[in-house]
Fold this protein.
Amino acid sequence: MTTVRRPGIPALSNGGGSMTSGRKNVLDLDDFSRDEIGGVLENTTAMREVLNRSIRKVPALRGHTVITLFHEPSTRTRVSFEQAGKVLSADVINVTSADNSTKKGESLYNTALTLQALNADIIVMRHPHSGAPHFLARHLDSCIINAGDGAHAHPSQALLDMYTIKEKLGGIEGKRVAIVGDILYSRVGRSNLWGLLKMGAHVTLCAPPTLVPPDFLKPLPEEHPFASVRVTHRVEEALEGAEVVMALRLQLERQTSGHLPSLREYSRMYCITTRRMELAAPDAIVMHPGPMNEGIEIDPEVAHGVRSVIEQQVTNGVAVRMALLFGVVTPDRGTVGRSAAK
Ligand code: CP
């Protein structure tokens, strides 16, 4: 069993995870193995232990620079990556589209080259265009972590969602997960599909036909990685027996044409309400990646009710992001899911 010794972080077993992929970037979960995801979740537990100390600071990334480069608004993701870097003693610099030179016509590539020349070890990046982090990962030596690209991927969100499911329900394998909402434009939904299926969950997607990717509207070939996913347009059917209900935000800023007759109609058909939650398993949890449109995709009574784990998701986001930052910069560069040790 391999362990990596770093100051201040408790030792963990590696859970049998592969230690050898040499991961430099975190772009999506499609190229993560089940073992590697398991390793990240284990290291997240070690990071949580650090966050529970009276002094939340370890020197694991001292001397490293993390730059967050956000070209879209964010509260949870940006703040938690910043907090994660600071707890690990990295120097963290925040750059947003409002205050960088892309405003003066500089290309994203040149902006990123500039950040690299300023010794960015890791660039945590959010961008409205799908594939933008992949482009930078191909051209830069800095590590790239995707913090959300267009409607494509949001891997750290999916990892924190899986961590929260494991924490609350004791595991992910075999769990019945209903993902309800704007599947078409949701990068959170897409990354969760990769992760949850690799970890053995049974996933049902629920949305009006206009908000389901066209590929999912017909049976997928048996060999397709998403072939086991069930799709329904009736929320009652999706929630029946579900152990996890994940509501997704309507991505109104990405919807280009009339996908919905009206928000009121959508809410009437798909809002996660207390009444509808009675169909779910008795101990079902309710998740939402945030930000929420309360009263549209989720009723406030559910969002703030006893089954809601939405705030725990946010808290777990810091530990997951610590595990990712720690994983990519380690000089011997095992996978991001390799063991973290004192
Ligand atoms: N879940 C999520 O990505 O939230 P933010 O947009 O606030 O980062």
Residues 74-77, 148, 157, 289-291 surround phosphoric acid mono(formamide)ester (CB under 6 Å). DSSP finds eleven helices and nine strands in the chain.
